[in-house]
């Protein structure tokens, strides 16, 4: 690594006053995971709380990605190159589209099962001793939680995307007591925290061999999917299992009740469109200021491969994973993936990246730029990314305005009304009309 980040070391009280209080906390869980005396824990809202005496070591504030992420310095640290805000993909050496040959793993995943497949393979060959992933609570199966998976069945049980705030990096505190090598599956904000950790606590960071990032448009508050279940008419007490991408590809909100009944909450509306509504209703304020959609500082980044975005040879590869290989560690890992014979892997030219993915990345950055300029002008807290924030055009500001409208009126009754409409026959009609409108007015490719 070619550059040492300039990191702030303050006691936990600094996070309370400057990060958690003003709404800048990403709820990544790093402060819990890195705290040497273990006196930080997670509240029901997923925010960190102090449970003992802070020793003022400053590890929590130094690793925190909420208030300060130096993108230019990170780019020099990880890639030894400068940062370009206009590059939607970030530093990418090679793109791949892939899926495991294991049908069970492939079909259990949200978009091809490559994250689960790679972790399962690495564990089987002794390359890692476990992985930090997101699973579900055994007592409250609609609740998500961070998990240190150390067996193949445990890794496979944590397959599929979870679209709500989960401070999974809190699990890193378990690694302090363990020897071995581990992989961590992380959202972009969590990747930022992990790269900071490499500068702060090299002993703990040295146990993390692979950082696997996930493409991320936004996440949801912890109660978002719970309110969706209840709006559909299912009491949470009757839920035996919940999946964000269940019921076959591309999947959707899917409940298994305790009596064995399987209930898809939406069958005729694509998950990406349902999530667009959910993000407006439940997107955390800090997520709306994030400029990293594709986990730009991970070793490998993973996302949906929407086959209908492509033509010719790639169009047939439905239910696959799109992979951005970014670092030398990621390159070596992909070489093993191709060599072992357990995966089907195709290379994708940079010029043929998914237009849908790039549109998502552009939308996330634009929304953040609008929010950042508004925060600067209004004297509110905002994260410092250490580069000049592009000034959004009037058209971009108008595009974000509709999104912001939801933010202002999303009280409980309004959320429930929107969800009941979304999951009703009238919601399907509205969805089809809106899709047609997009096709006509903005050449939308559905």
List the strand order in the largest sheet: 5-4-6-7-11-12-3-13
Query: Which regions contain 5 or more consecutive residues with pLDDT less than 50?
Result: none
Strand content: 15-25%
The helix tally amounts to 17
List its salient traits.
single chain; 446 residues; alpha+beta; 8-stranded mixed beta sheet; 3-stranded antiparallel beta sheet; 39% helix; globular
Description:
The protein is an alpha+beta fold and 446 residues long. It has a domain at 86-221 and 286-357. The protein has helices at 12-20, 30-34, 59-63, 71-79, 103-108, 114-124, 152-157, 172-175, 188-200, 202-205, 224-231, 271-282, 328-339, 355-378, 394-409, 412-422, 425-442, and strands at residues 40-42, 48-50, 94-100, 130-136, 144-149, 182-186, 208-214, 239-246, 252-257, 262-264, 300-305, 320-325, 343-348. The strands form three sheets. The chain has an eight-stranded mixed sheet. A hairpin with a 7-residue loop joins strand 4 (130-136) and strand 5. The N and C termini lie far apart (42 Å). The model has no long low-confidence stretch (mean pLDDT 92). Pfam families: FrhB_FdhB_C, FrhB_FdhB_N. InterPro entries: 4Fe4S_Fe-S-bd, 4Fe4S_Fe_S_CS, Co_F420_Hydgase/DH_bsu_N, FRHB/FDHB/HCAR-like, FrhB_FdhB_C.
Give the SSE layout.
Layout: H1 12-20, H2 30-34, E1 40-42, E2 48-50, H3 59-63, H4 71-79, E3 94-100, H5 103-108, H6 114-124, E4 130-136, E5 144-149, H7 152-157, H8 172-175, E6 182-186, H9 188-200, H10 202-205, E7 208-214, H11 224-231, E8 239-246, E9 252-257, E10 262-264, H12 271-282, E11 300-305, E12 320-325, H13 328-339, E13 343-348, H14 355-378, H15 394-409, H16 412-422, H17 425-442
Parallel strand pairs: 4-6, 6-7, 7-11
Antiparallel strand pairs: 1-2, 3-12, 3-13, 4-5, 8-9, 9-10, 11-12
